[in-house]
């Protein structure tokens, strides 16, 4: 498994972005694409802006493998910029008059946000017909390349079994021992908002619950990734996350367990939180971007998603049988998967986040 450092943060928090492939660092308005990114697109380069989670800090992640294979196959160098889901969209917006990225990869609802801001152009990658309709846009603006699901983690050493319901988290034993990342800033934090609104039947009952939960909450966290180590060490007992990230982390964190909350009397459920990719509008190297998107959805790359990346293939016709795939299938057994109303979330996300801030005093 890749030893990934997952940092789902906002630009205001990080300040700098790591250009992991080139070994450079970009701060402020600079970018990995600044050197030699002509609009003609004749160069053998493609620049990717991506939410973090799929690149290994030891060079052993899914991105590391598939980018290297792509370069070997095509001779096109991949320049890579990573950050939080919202951060990547914000950066692309700032650069609209001087586009630097060719491919944008981020999580919902931020991929829909990118589309709404005119950041994406239509392109249907080869193999996209094998991706579930819920995990791609109907107009070809974006397509999932790695599937993933929202979840929670708990400390298996301190708790004899995983919590089962949202209501259980209101118990006094979780006071100062529970934390979730910030909605509107972290992708997984935003997912907490989406899941609670689904389970409690709307914004108002969800906010009423989250207001009560705040009594036990340690406080805001711009980075979801930092919560798993805290949970593993017993500093906190419960935190939010996502399956792909936490599954990878659990390989080096023996006390980390994954679970899916339910409303009292209901069944555990989750929703797809995929890494979705789109071709950037006015991309300086759009033809190279198209080739990379084709490669990411190719059978060879998709077969590596579970074994190397700890995630789920986006293509429904790719069914890996490696040990990780088997374990992930067992983990998801009995968990209902629902589809959020992404159009509503995209339109009303700011209002939902504001309601959360008001309810929790954040």
Give an account of the 3D structure:
The protein contains 13 helices and 15 strands. It has about 350 residues and is of the alpha/beta class. The strands form 4 sheets. Strands 3, 4, 5, 6, 7, 13 and 14 form a 7-stranded mixed sheet that branches. Strands 9-10-8-11 form a 4-stranded mixed sheet. It is globular. The two termini are about 35 Å apart.
Features of this protein?
alpha/beta; 362 residues; globular; 15 strands; four-stranded mixed β-sheet; seven-stranded mixed β-sheet; single chain; 13 helices
Compressed to H and E, one letter per element, the order equals HEEEHEHEHEEEEHHHEHEEEHHHEHEH
Strand-residue fraction? 15-25%
Mean pLDDT: 88
Q: Radius of gyration, rounded?
A: 20 Å
Q: Please outline the major beta sheet.
A: 7 strands, mixed
Distance between the termini: 36 Å
What is the overall silhouette? globular
| Number of helical elements | 13
Q: Low-confidence spans: pLDDT under 50, at least 5 residues?
A: 1-41
Instruction: Specify the oligomeric state.
Output: single chain
Helix content: 25-40%
What's the total number of strands?
15
Q: Indicate the structural class.
A: alpha/beta
